[in-house]
Specification:
Elements lengths: L4 H10 L9 H19 L30 H7 L3 E2 L2 E2 L7
Antiparallel strand pairs: 1-2
Helix pairs in contact: 1-2
C-alpha cells in the first residue's frame, strides 16, 4: 500500500495533528514503509506458534509477602475531615 501526500494530510486531520506541507512527503514515505512491514508480517504463517505476553520467557522473582509498615488506619481516620464506619466521606459530585 502506497500513501501519498493527500492520504497523510487526511490521516493527520483525523488524528488532529498539525503537519507542515513540507513534511507530508516524508511522512508518506515513512508510513508506506511501516505499512509494508505490517503486510510482510501478516504474510508469515504463524500456525502453531503460541502467543507470548513478553518476548522473554522469564518468571518474575518473588519476594516474601511481609508487612513493611505499621497499621495506621485509625490515625488517618482521625485526620480525615469526615469518616464513618472506617470509610472516608466525600462530597457528592454526581447529581
Amino acid at each position: 500500500m502506497n500513501l501519498d501526500r493527500s492520504d497523510v494530510a487526511k490521516i493527520a486531520q483525523l488524528a488532529k495533528l498539525a503537519v507542515d506541507d513540507a513534511e507530508l512527503e516524508h511522512y508518506a514515505t515513512e508510513l508506506t514503509s511501516i505499512l509494508g512491514l505490517v503486510e510482510q508480517m501478516n504474510g508469515i504463517d504463524t500456525t502453531g506458534v503460541e502467543p507470548m505476553a513478553h518476548p522473554l520467557h522469564q518468571s518474575q522473582r518473588l519476594r516474601p509477602d511481609l508487612v513493611t509498615e505499621a497499621d495506621q488506619r485509625e490515625r488517618f481516620q482521625r485526620l480525615a475531615p469526615l469518616s464513618e464506619g472506617g470509610l472516608y466521606l466525600v462530597p457528592r459530585v454526581v447529581e
